[in-house]
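To the wet lab folks,

You asked to see what we're planning to order before we commit. Fair enough. Below is the target structure as tokens, and below that is the sequence we designed to fit it. If anything looks off to you, flag it before the synthesis order goes out.
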């Protein structure tokens, strides 16, 4: 196709987290490639700022952990001022990137203003609280998903949807885990003959407090079975201190390497013990055999489990549609079971598993920013330059 000049296009974008900021930056870059005169407004972070985006608020003000009761007044103020600013900006289209509750409210407002609305990164309606689909249908003109299986529920409910791939599948090349393993080990002080297990208990204090003790008792059992070394990533100094204190209380005689980079930790490892979430996807993209475990406090689990509509929790298993990665949930996540599963992964050949990982990786490896930009331009009635 050839690009047609249709006047100055205005796009409002709101990203509330670092992952959304990165998606926003790629989207802005791709939209400008298609329409150099496009104007932007909204909320973003440093990655979007690097693309010339001027944020209405500092993205860090939107950062929350759990249910942010103490931040509700501030978030409400940001929501109201953003609503006012975007109404004045008068965009052709509003794009909410993840940050579901906040963006859901803005999408409803923009829809009432008669604006086109796009939500980028599907809420997990396929896994739990599927009733949210009705509000999405009311307020969203287009859903952009990162995973192919997510389109089904939208198609069933006659909601326009497009799968655009996961950006991490482009960031992490299929051979990165092999090529960079030696360098990662040298950086962390390991040799190529060491047996290394990376343990990823999560990035939040509450997550670490719940599952890290189970992980570290597993490490203690593993060290009794065969000689191996352990590496645990920490997102900040506070988390590193928490991890170090827990480790010393459980396995004081076993050496631990704490690093600030989870990708480097997994690249250096032979196997990974990981909490559910994006880290399972990253481990798969790095071709690392893994065991997934997840625990919640009993009351939260009782509530959440009653709403669940999925039998699988690890992303590689969900994406493959079959059990590739051992999963241990709640009471099943015991150190003895985790240690047995890890020993099996380390001692037995995993060529078949890695081949399955590669198949999933290839399906996710699309130019997300470009595809998202093209779909948004089509929604806005503009043509675009095909690649």
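Sequence we intend to order:
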């Amino acid at each position: 196709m050839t690009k047609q000049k249709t006047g100055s296009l205005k796009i409002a974008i709101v990203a509330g987290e670092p992952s959304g900021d990165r998606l926003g930056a790629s989207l802005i870059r791709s939209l400008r490639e298609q329409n150099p005169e496009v104007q932007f407004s909204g909320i973003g972070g440093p990655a979007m700022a690097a693309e010339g985006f001027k944020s209405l608020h500092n993205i860090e003000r939107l950062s929350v952990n759990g249910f942010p009761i103490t931040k509700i007044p501030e978030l409400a103020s940001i929501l109201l001022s953003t609503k006012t600013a975007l109404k004045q900006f008068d965009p052709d289209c509003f794009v909410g990137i993840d940050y579901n509750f906040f963006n859901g409210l803005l999408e409803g407002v923009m829809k009432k203003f008669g604006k086109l609305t796009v939500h980028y990164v599907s809420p997990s309606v396929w896994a739990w609280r599927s009733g949210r689909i009705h509000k999405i249908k009311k307020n969203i003109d287009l859903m952009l998903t990162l995973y192919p299986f997510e389109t089904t529920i939208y198609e069933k409910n006659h909601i326009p949807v497009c799968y655009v791939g996961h950006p991490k599948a482009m960031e992490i090349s299929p051979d990165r885990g092999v090529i960079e393993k030696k360098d990662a080990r040298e950086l962390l002080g390991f040799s190529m003959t060491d047996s290394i297990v990376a343990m990823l208990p999560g990035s939040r204090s509450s997550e670490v407090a719940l599952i890290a003790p189970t992980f570290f008792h597993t490490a203690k059992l593993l060290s009794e079975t065969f000689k191996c070394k352990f590496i645990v990533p920490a997102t900040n100094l506070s988390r590193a201190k928490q991890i170090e204190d827990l480790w010393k209380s459980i396995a004081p005689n076993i050496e631990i390497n704490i690093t600030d980079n989870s990708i480097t930790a997994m690249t250096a490892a032979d196997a990974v013990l990981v909490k559910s979430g994006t880290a399972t996807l990253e481990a798969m993209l790095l071709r690392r055999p893994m065991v997934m475990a997840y625990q919640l406090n009993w009351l939260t689990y009782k509530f959440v489990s009653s709403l669940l509509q999925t039998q699988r929790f690890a992303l590689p298993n969900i994406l493959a549609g079959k059990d590739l990665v051992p999963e241990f949930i709640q009471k099943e996540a015991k150190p003895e079971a985790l240690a047995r599963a890890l020993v099996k992964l380390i001692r037995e050949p995993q060529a078949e598993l890695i081949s399955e990982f590669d198949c999933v990786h290839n399906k996710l490896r699309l130019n997300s920013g470009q595809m998202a930009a093209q779909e948004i331009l089509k929604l806005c009635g503009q043509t675009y330059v095909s690649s």
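Structural context that might help your review: Confidence is low (pLDDT under 50) at residues 1-6. Residues 205 and 239 are 7 Å apart (CA to CA).

Thanks,
Computational group
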